[in-house]
């Protein structure tokens, strides 16, 4: 049975990846999920699989060398999928140090522990071991509205503390690949959306605010463009890179769903009104009059757009979920999981797990 060590698996993309892997492989794999449970980590995301015999949760900080080394010492880890990161741009502007610690130092610890566990006396590595570092398109900087795209060869030009910290972590992985021939890949993805996304991010924020008649904040003129990727498509890409990617290579993972932020908000409002029953009282609260333009974010990149040509050509992956379908699936999930949203927005989930771990 192959054992996967997933970092940040209680977060949005990590938890969706774990669900995807169990749906695909069931009892053929074992997953060890390591998460420190910051505000963005929520074990409710994994409630339905927490009692599986082939799933283990370990609460640990990826910057804790002893804790991570212990996991490698006590388990024969075959694959590492490294999601764990501080990822919210606005938070990075307010507190860059936390992002440097988690995203750069944490990645260094993960690399060192995997290298120590997998390296053979002659400097080569055990057969079949792979480390996948999950990164972002934001490391490439900003594009003009001219139809150009980010490729794997695009020079890095990060503009926020968040993207700078992710660029630094990417460079660490590249250095281990070049220096030690470490068995790793990097994926750089576009904006994800789907179930379990923390409501500080644009799509769940707009869904939640609209349903409660709250203002819908839009940075600047609302014309910043992002490429949107449904999270299950991303999970599939990660699995395919782990299985079929050439070691040492970087693969861009994009959704072919470029949209302005203001377009996203209008689509969400229209879709909510389409999906809400006629007698649902929330219909009266959902309105485009709630759209409120606010001061633009510092260093706000204008446009991101990924060309996933390489991953399609080499591995056969391409996005399957167009935005119109994906946003309906996402809204339907939030309709069905109102308690999840209430617990997240109230902060109750954090108190519950804090109490649980303190009492152990």
UniProtKB/TrEMBL annotation:
So which domain of life are we looking at? Bacteria
List, in alphabetical order, the Gene Ontology terms for molecular function in this entry: dTDP-glucose 4,6-dehydratase activity
Q: Which reaction does it catalyse?
A: dTDP-alpha-D-glucose = dTDP-4-dehydro-6-deoxy-alpha-D-glucose + H2O
Task: List residues of the NAD(P)-binding domain.
Answer: 5-330
Q: Which cofactor does it need?
A: NAD(+)
Which InterPro entries does the protein's record reference? dTDP_Gluc_deHydtase, NAD(P)-bd_dom, NAD(P)-bd_dom_sf
Enzyme class per UniProt = lyase
Q: Name one Pfam family in it.
A: GDP_Man_Dehyd
- One biological process GO term for this chain? nucleotide-sugar metabolic process
The Enzyme Commission number assigned here is 4.2.1.46
The record's CDD domains line, in alphabetical order, gives: dTDP_GD_SDR_e
Keywords annotated in UniProt: Lyase, NAD
Which PANTHER family does the UniProt entry name for this protein? DTDP-D-GLUCOSE 4,6-DEHYDRATASE-RELATED
Which protein family is named in the record?
Belongs to the NAD(P)-dependent epimerase/dehydratase family. dTDP-glucose dehydratase subfamily.
* UniProt protein name: dTDP-glucose 4,6-dehydratase
* Species this protein is from: Roseburia intestinalis
* Organism lineage string: Bacteria, Bacillati, Bacillota, Clostridia, Lachnospirales
Its gene is rfbB
């Amino acid at each position: 049975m192959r054992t996967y060590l997933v970092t940040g698996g209680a977060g949005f993309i990590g938890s969706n990846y774990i669900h995807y892997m169990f749906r695909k492989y069931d009892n053929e794999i074992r997953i060890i999920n390591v998460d420190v449970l910051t505000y963005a980590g929520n074990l409710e995301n994994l409630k339905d699989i927490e009692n599986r015999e082939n799933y283990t949760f370990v609460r640990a900080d990826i910057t804790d060398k002893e804790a991570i080394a212990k996991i490698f010492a006590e388990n024969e880890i075959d694959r590492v999928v490294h999601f764990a990161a501080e990822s919210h741009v606005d938070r990075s502007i307010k507190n860059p140090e936390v992002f440097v610690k988690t995203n750069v130092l944490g990645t260094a610890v993960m690399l060192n522990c995997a290298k120590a566990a997998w390296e053979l006396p002659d400097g080569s590595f055990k057969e079949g071991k792979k480390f996948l570092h999950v990164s972002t398109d934001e490391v490439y900087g900003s594009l003009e509205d001219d139809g150009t795209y980010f490729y794997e060869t695009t020079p890095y030009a990060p503009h926020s503390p968040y993207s700078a910290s992710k660029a630094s972590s990417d460079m660490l992985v590249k250095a281990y690949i070049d220096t030690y021939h470490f068995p790793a890949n990097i994926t750089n993805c576009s904006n994800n959306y789907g179930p379990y996304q923390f409501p500080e991010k644009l799509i769940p924020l707009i869904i939640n605010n609209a349903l409660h008649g709250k203002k819908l904040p839009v940075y600047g003129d609302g014309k910043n463009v992002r490429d949107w990727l449904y999270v299950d498509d991303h999970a599939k890409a990660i699995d395919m890179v782990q299985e079929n990617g050439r070691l040492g290579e970087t693969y861009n993972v994009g959704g072919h769903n470029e949209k302005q932020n203001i377009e996203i908000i209008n689509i969400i409002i229209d879709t909510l009104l389409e999906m809400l029953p006629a007698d649902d009282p929330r219909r009266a609260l959902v309105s485009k009059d709630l759209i409120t333009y606010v001061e633009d974010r510092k260093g706000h990149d204008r446009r991101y757009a990924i060309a996933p040509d390489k991953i399609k050509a080499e591995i056969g992956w391409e996005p399957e979920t167009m935005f119109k379908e994906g946003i309906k699936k996402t809204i339907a999930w939030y309709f069905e999981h109102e308690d999840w949203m209430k617990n997240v927005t109230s902060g109750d989930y954090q108190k519950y797990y804090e109490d649980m771990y303190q009492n152990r």
